[in-house]
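Hi all, a correction to my earlier message: I attached the wrong file for Non-structural maintenance of chromosomes element 1 homolog. Here's the right sequence:
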Amino acid sequence: NTVMAAQMTDAHRRFLQVLMSHGILEGSAARKLHQRCCEIHKVYYAHDKLDDFISTINSQLQPLFMQIRKGMSEDDGRAHYALVNLAETEVTKMASDYTENELELFRKTMDLIVFSENGFASSTDILNLADQLKTKKMKKKEAEQVLKVFVEDKWLSERNGEYTLHTRCIIEMEQYILSNYQDVARKCNICHSLAIQSQVCSTCGIVMHLPCVRKYFRAQTAPHCPHCNDIWSSEIP
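and the right structure:
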């Protein structure tokens, strides 16, 4: 069976096709898909071997500069799997889908989100940028439509008029954001992946994702920073 798992089968191909059509899958959906693909193609199925199953696909994707990556939703801490293109920088990859001024609006929105304290940008602030674009100014109505498309395409998430980066965007653009926003982009002290929505230790400045904060301090009555051991001043979500 181990030999079977190491070779690409039709089950692997079907899994990849479904992931490609969705762009990203939540962990439980990926596990169900794994089981379904193995059953359809009569391939040995081990419920706890999804990551091995994905590594087999990744070894085939390597020459194509593609990779299935695992990431975490900053809202609820759930695992997600996304197909990532490693060959191009992420914003240039978006260039085939959007016009220049749409891309500029996305970059400016990303600036607002990454530089914000809570990882969100209000629609008002984003729409105010629309008529300041260097490429070609956008009317507010038009900008609203473009934001809607960014949400549909899973680059942005929207909640009550506030926008943040979608889980897919964070998984795909982690390296881009870390290298382009070196002064402000930080990794979570607990899970070591890029943290956009996070809390900061007021003493030593380390950051933690909200789900990581929740999990880490769950058992502590008086929460202390895992890095400097000072009292954690933010409210535990």
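Sorry for the mix-up. The chain has ten helices and ten strands.
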